[in-house]
User: Fold these one by one.
Assistant:
Number 1:
Amino acid sequence: MTESSVIIAGFGGQGILLAGEVLANALMLDGKDVTWYPCYGAEMRGGTVNCEVVASDDEVSSVNKKEADFIIALNQLSFEKFLPKLKKGGWIIANSSLVKELRSRIDVNYFFAPITHLANELGEIRISNIISLGILSKIGKLTSIETLHKALDMVLPEHKKNLLPLNLEALETGFNLQPVPVTVG
Amino acid sequence: MQTETRNENLIFKIPKSLKEGTKFPFCPGCDHGVAVRLVAEILDEFNLREKTIAVSSIGCSVMLYDWVNTDCVEAPHGRALAAATGVKRTNTDKCVFTYQGDGDFASIGLAESMHAALRGENITAICINNTTYGMTGGQAGPTTIMGQVTTTSPTGRNKEYYGYPIKIAEQIALCEGTAFAARGSLDTVLNIRKTKELIKKAFEVQLQGLGFGFVEILSSCPTNWRMTPQESHERIRKELFSVYPLGVYKE
Amino acid sequence: MTKKLTKGNYAIAQAAINAGCDGYFGYPVTPQNEIGEYMSKKMPKLKRAYISAESEIGAINMVLGACSTGKKAMTSSSSMAIALMQEALCYIAADELPAVLVSVMRAGPALGYIYPAQGDYNQAVTGGGNGDYRIIVLAPSTVQECIDLTYKSFYLAQKYRNPVTLLADGLLGQMMEPVEFKDYPYPEIPNDDWALTGAKNREPRAIYSLEAKEEVLEKRVNLLFEKYKVIEENEQDFEEYLTQDAELIVTCFGSLARNVKSAVNECRKQGLKVGMLRPITLYPFPVYKIQELAKKTKKILVIEMNMGQMVRDVQLAVNGKVPVKFFGKAVGKWIEVETICEKIKKEIGNG
């Protein structure tokens, strides 16, 4: 049984839960069993928002795992909070526009990218979540950006469907990024 | 000499909305029976008996379903207007009324009562105010007036220990969803007639879909007041009218 | 039918609508607010009743009123707010009304916090009302089961004229999973012999719990318990997993079963003879199945996200035939697969 888990975390307003929902839908379209579990309630106020997506070829074994295979951290607080929860050999995708490029663990892989900056370049700061999914698609190989795009079509409400082309662009931007060579920090 | 009782000669008959052979279990001189009868007469007048669902409460009126000749559900103490809301909102074509005491309506059930009024529920609510908890033996209640001696205010109600009584009809009249709010009394034949008119209006607003219809009825409690029926009605006039003035507060 | 990624709370709400719920009455409390929010959008469009009640007490009594007229009504809430509803629930049970209550557990006691937990087993199963009465309790373990068991809740409520609690938890309420919305699969139960619909062309009906005559009150309670006996005979439901040759059976309920099942799979790979039994009906508790398993297995390990509540029902059913062990915690991350594996190994090792 292959099972992968992804934690997506950042500020409220960065589209964290939506990104998770898009990812979960994409994985469902790929025929996986999938669960999406958010932080909720007062936990969301002020601090970080996060959600966990688990996908499995078989039944998902547990929804809220001890360690994740992939982490997307869109702000400093999430980076600090979730780096310890990354599985050995796992990947953390961090938004270097807001996260200091420190590599405090040597047993994991880092992908720093100026995601907020890239989103600004695309003309929509709120699309950083989708750029990060593009990056995840490239390095995680969990699902393709085409499937992610299909999933976006499922998740976005009617009145936001006009944003689909921009979202595709964001997925491609993320997908085409080259990892910065690792330097000892 | 035997006389035949003809319908046109009848000056007194039991309303159809009261069960045949009903014997009220109330104490001698208690006004509850008059109030229930008035409600039944109004149900008859509007021909509502077959489409009415009554909601009873906890207190002396708990066995309402034994007297009114309509369908009836018993609500837990204080919750009659919540239960009635559930009945009415899922059965908008039915006539729904609650019959409660002042403790049920305005103490334990104040939130349920007032919110039903605020929501403007198309329900008629009758509240009997006898300034005490009658069923449990005459304890101090939300409407016990200042100075009144009860089994739990042995030296009389004072502000230090008990605070102040609630003027229910006035409070309900303040709610925007209230279509009709009034206070009546059953101490004289004239007041009984007037109170019947108030009850009629409280049902009328329901039938017209205008909102919450409410009548507070001052009632005697000779047993717990330790008075004769006559003295009880005298007390209503002398002591209660000044605290709880009769009249229509909203229409 | 295509699957749709759906949040547990929304799944419950939509399933209630599909089941023909005529009225939803609720008051907010995390982690089940999505149910009321969803209902406030959908019910008015369907011309069904929706009320943001003044309190949980108001909400459950509105359910009582609606159910007394034969309408399908529900409320949803959590933990300390469910505690507020106990009086009316007891009336509903005594009045034999078909109400549905959704309880999405948070961590207690008292205000505790909104973290998921399973500490309200006792509250749901034994209840907080007075006197002798029972409430049917169903515990889903996946979002799909949230739908299926919401359907079943409405059905059993009508079938037995008894309140039913759907006991979920914060994790189940908040998580999303791909689900299928099939149609409500149960028959409608006629209620024209008892519902309050106005006394037209028939004698008036009254629904009440007051009974001043000793012998009549006793008879009423006995009748209730005759009904409960039928429920206990007919409705015990459970999920059994690899129990045939199991030397150790892990028993758990609700969404924790996912983790337990994974642990059972892990241990099986290592050659350990372990299985899982998950009660789906917490009342009626699946005693017959547990009695049968107690004859075959060597030990039962009960795992719960609480300090040991269902374990008592397991002990009663096992009645000393085999040792019953317990592991649990009151709050925090759902007990992890690795931890469950360790516990299984320890218990099997101890013989």
Number 2:
Amino acid sequence: MNLNSNFVKQNAIWGVLLVEILIFAVASGGNFVTGHNLINISRQVSYYGIAAIGMTFVILIADIDLSIGSIITLVNVVCAWLMVNAGVNMWVAVLISLIMATGIGLVNAVMVAAVGIPALIATFASQTVFEGVAYLISGGRPISGFDSSFGIFARWAIADVVPICAIIMVACFALGSFILNKTYFGRYFYAIGGNEEAAELSGIRVNRVKYLIYSLSGFFAGLAGIVLLSRSGSAQSTVGKGLEFDVITCVVLGGVSVYGGVGTMSGVIAGVLIIGSLTNGMILMDVSQYTQMVVKGLVLAIAVGIDCMSKKRQAS
Amino acid sequence: MSENYVLELEHIRKEYPGVVALKDVTLQLREGEILGLIGENGAGKSTLIKCCTGAVIPTSGKIRVNGREFDRMTPQLAAENGIAVIYQEFNNVGELSAAENLFLGRPIRHGMVIDRKAMEERAREAFEQLHIKIDPRELVKNLSVGYQQMIEIAKAIQQNARVLIMDEPSAPLTSGEVESMFAVVELLRRRGVSIIYISHRLEEIFRLSDRIEVIRDGEYVTTLITPEATVDELITLMVGREMTQKFPPRKDCIQQDRVVLELDGVCGNGNTGMSLRLHAGEVLGLGGLVGAGRTELAQVIFGARPKESGHIYLHGKEINPRTPREAIDLGIALVPEDRKRHGALLGISIKNNISMPIYERISRLSVIDSATEQAVAQKYREEIQIKCPTLNQLVKNLSGGNQQKVILGKWLAAACDVIIFDEPTRGIDVGAKFEIYKLINTLVEQGKAVLMISSEMEELMGMSDRIIVLAENRMTGELSREEFNSDRIMAYASGITDGKAAATSPKTEQD
């Protein structure tokens, strides 16, 4: 009985995804469930799927990272600038961009762990700072004209079917799942999210773990930025604006509690697919961008609302 | 009922699931008297007060205020009937002025507009009546703790309180402030206000009260006329109960030649001059009142709070743990007082809890060796008999006693040989207590060293080989097993050292 209800609870999210696909399949008149469109969805979700992994870790310890949209923008601008304006080799440019993104994560960690600024404010500040930096570098103009081989990270597809960006995303999910379930870091994330004080008193060096988590969040955001740049072929200074919102929605919808300590990687994958197919389905059905915003906002509120209500029920 | 009782509590009983906080307490408060209310930690004083104010609803019993009978109080009823409490924590708003605090929640106003002038005028009068010199316009955060308390008292009087309950009012005050507080309390008594005065400091009870009521283990013991009572008598009444076979027997296993932990003049976290020696195979009890500095000392030894000066030696070598991690790696463990907040990780499994301190030891390239993880958890589940269907059970679903065992299992897995227990059996039912005691015995018989903080006199005397007593962040006394005597421990805990006992109370002289 008990096991059953737990099973239902843990897998309800996949049911939601199924229902959603069915609705769109019918409502779109057959345009939604086509091989072409499903590949399209996998391409569209790949960058925020990748970013969602780092965000999952951050929300697991009951923090938040608002800077990832800016990191994605900055990586776009810097990577493109290095290749176009500085003539740097593609792979070197990618490496530098990823190191920079990880470094920004580390800066966030210093503010949160060492200085003690609440994560919401610390990462909001860095969001603003690095968005500004991206504008300063690009002057607000798109940077394009780099080698078409950069398309390897997103446009290319194996056998013209499986897009490389989707493979990168799957690999990242596998890595995220491995970190969470097989390494002691994963245990530490759950412990800190459950009770930071008790975790420290159990011998976990909480601050060090936070350095790791924010760095990972920065790294995955950076990788998402590379994939996005590869897909668009041009770096825009507004490309990442508000992306943290989509990513947070995916993670919370996937069952990661905003109170910390609860959540699974598979849930987050489902969350990413739900938001991805929702966005895609609405575009197919010609729903205006503003209506899409309304729908996504409601989805976030409902997802968090369910989390809060289950927390309340547990408490009483 | 010939007497004029302003407040009567009759046969108050309060049950919580699994615990009876108050069994049967009766209290009668006369008009214009100061009634001292005393009892050990956990005797039920706080619960009793909360029944008077409506914060707690008694399971059974009657509350009578000026002859009117109630089954229960509500905060509003209590206020209407003139019952007010001065808690240890004040309800002041620091950013508002003294006058504004005095009228907090019901300011003098004309429509929407607050009449600041009138409030300040009325506040000045109120303070003058109590002979307190406070500028009504001063922000409360700029006032000393003593004055902040005065504002609380003035607020209660302003609201026509006829019964004032004061819970350890002297605890946060300096000695000068205590004197001023006494003056106000005596002034109020002359004006006919009835006061219930709760304090651990017996000399204050003797100085102020007209009568003294003693409660113990949630039960009414007796009420004495203050001039007829003695300190000894009160302590015996507070503590005195029969010692039955509540503690499992233990082999004598103290290794006097092996000092495991030694503190030499350790200061920090509020404490000063902490010196002690803990031997292998020994249970050293730390006695004292709540807030005496025992938990604070444990935190320093465990690296959770910084040491300011002094030396800590472990097996003869000086150590200076700056984080719990460092202390654990040295072999020092802390089983904290607040199990749910500081001890167990409630949302994760038993297995993960037990392995938490050793994950880095049982991992290769940060990948956990899950076979070892399982084996370690299984070993301690059997060794200390954690009762659970599976090791994957979440710790929050275990009973208090089993949670405590999980915490202990964690430290045994980490191979700690100095184990500090802070209130090891708080919130644990009687049967499970015995098991925890047996475990402590096993630990010392294996040669581990145990430092045990306990506020339960019985437990302290029943389990310790030696007891050190703390009062007000200092060590006030040490007793070997032959010298164990609850009166003496209580006297030390009240800050009365051997030399001072005669000075504070002429009636005690037995050492």
